[in-house]
Amino acid sequence: MNIIGMEFGITRLCPSARRRFATESVVSLANFEVQTNDRILATSLQTTCDVLEALSRTACAQVVELIASNTNCSAILLDALAKHSSTQVKIAVSENPNIDIETLLELAFHEDSDLRYAMAENPLMPLDILKILSEDENPYISCRAVSTLERLEASSKAPQEMLGWTQFRSMETAKSMNALASNNKSTVAQVNRFFNTLYRFSKAI
User: Fold this and answer.
1) Domain boundaries, given as residue ranges, for the chain
2) Which residues contact 115 (CB under 8 A, 6 or more apart)?
3) How much of the chain is helix, strand and coil, in % rounded to 5?
4) What tens-digit pLDDT sequence spans the chain (205 residues)?
5) What's the pTM?
6) Cα separation of 184 and 205, whole Å?
7) CA triplet 191, 196, 200: central angle to 5 degrees?
8) What CA–CA distance (Å, rounded) separates 137 from 139?
9) DSSP per position, 133-186
10) What gap in Å lies between CA 31 and CA 109, rounded to an integer?
């Protein structure tokens, strides 16, 4: 229904119905503004932990999830939010860097399998927690934790391999420069030989 049709429909209501519709519209708009302000407070890094704690007592689950993601949350507040009924809130708590290891342990053994699965696929989770989840009775969770551990192990080796290649390339470049310096050929010939050598190295990759 377009706006004109909606306005026409409203005018056909009886006076009491129009008053009720207007009242409900005002209330809905007010609730929307309150939720918007709550979301801004929940996500702002300027909001103190005390304000976040007070807001978490009355806010809806979606706003509490945003609060749990705020890095201004203290470990004490995160421990309290970890007992929230919403799975998404508990997941946000587990991903907050300020969380205590004791709270993480409690969440790792929580009955909520969706929570444990989300923790198992989080590469920022402490290794000890991932190892615990790799032995979870739920095969989906344990396999996911094992997969995350394998990815972390592979990524930890990658910088070392890259460093090895960088060192090799630096050594070969230094050798080429030394060889050119000891050569009596012209500067142009030396530069051409140097770039030809680099080109051969690049082709060998």
Assistant:
1) 168-204
2) 87, 90, 91, 94, 107
3) 75, 0, 25
4) 444 444 445 455 555 554 554 455 444 444 445 568 889 999 999 999 999 999 999 999 999 999 999 999 999 999 999 999 999 999 999 999 999 999 999 999 999 999 999 999 999 999 999 999 999 999 999 999 999 999 998 887 755 555 555 565 666 666 666 665 565 555 556 566 666 666 665 555 5
5) 0.63
6) 30
7) 150
8) 6
9) HTT-SSHHHHHHHHHHHHHHHHHHHHHHHHHHHHHHHHHHHHHHHHHHHT--S-
10) 37
Tokens of residue 189, six digits: 């010939």
Q: Look-up: residue for tokens 């919403």?
A: 86
Establish how many alpha carbons lie within 13 A of residue 104's alpha carbon, considering only the half-sphere containing its beta carbon. Answer: 23
Token output for 84: 């929230």
Packing angle, helices 15-43 and 49-56, rounded to 10: 140
DSSP 47: S
